[in-house]
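Supplementary Note 3. Input sequence used for the single-chain structure prediction.
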Amino acid sequence: MIDSFRNKYSFLSNYELSPFTVNGVVFPTMEHYFQAMKATNQEDLLEIAKAPTPGKAKRLGRKVKIRSDWEYVKKDIMLEGLRKKFAIPELRQKLLDTGDAYLEEGNTWGDCYWGVCNGTGENNLGKLLMRVREEIQNECS
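The predicted structure, written as discrete structure tokens, is reproduced below.
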């Protein structure tokens, strides 16, 4: 089991530098992408995409007018972003190198939706990472 997306496994974190492009917009990290997808207008989306750090992108994502269907689409958006991120050959290989390890986004900041905190949580990020890994494994076999 991999229960922390730090150090050797920091590449699994949404804060890890992993630039990819969607519709002509470069997103430096998954966090930039995810937060930008909340926006209801292109101006806010671009401001978030250009944020100097993933933490700043997250803070901006909390301030924008959030699309009305966000709660219904956020997991799908995370999944699509992870597919883009792990299409990067180096990151794709690192994800494959985790084998069949259970991936758990353990955290201390209380995010029990995307991760697990103090032994409790849905671990949706970990589940989506394992899904992307399985998709890549199936492509390779």
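The chain has a mean pLDDT of 95. Helices lie at 30-36, 42-49, 54-63, 70-85, 89-96, 124-140.
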